[in-house]
């Protein structure tokens, strides 16, 4: 039941904090930062909408970010991933890391997966598929997913890749 997702068709543009003054945070482990691979369509998976999903698992159009909330006084604590409604804004996994807050308590949460609904998206960056493989550049074609389901990415340990840079571009209208 922790995987249930709700859908909310609302605009996500008004209340976002500006991140124009942030200094880029580049965190490179020995190989890169492990995360799912939104550039790989074979890792795409979907979930049906479920109106009984908890409030903290509500997705809207555009990009959603999945994360654990470690605030023990938060309603979503220890209840699986929360969904952060990032919306129709480009997301830089490193640069925007600090801008991601729990939808229930607002505290910083660390992005662990990505989800799409009713949006065009494109992935740009560089990654290693395995820690001992060379860095490869990623620059995908634009893709579209509808709002019939929630689209996300496999995130078992064997599905993760190692990112040096990762930007997810989203567009509500056809971008080309
Ligand atoms: Zn929280």
TrEMBL record:
Name of the protein in its database record: 7724_t:CDS:1
Domain of life of the organism encoding this protein: Eukaryota
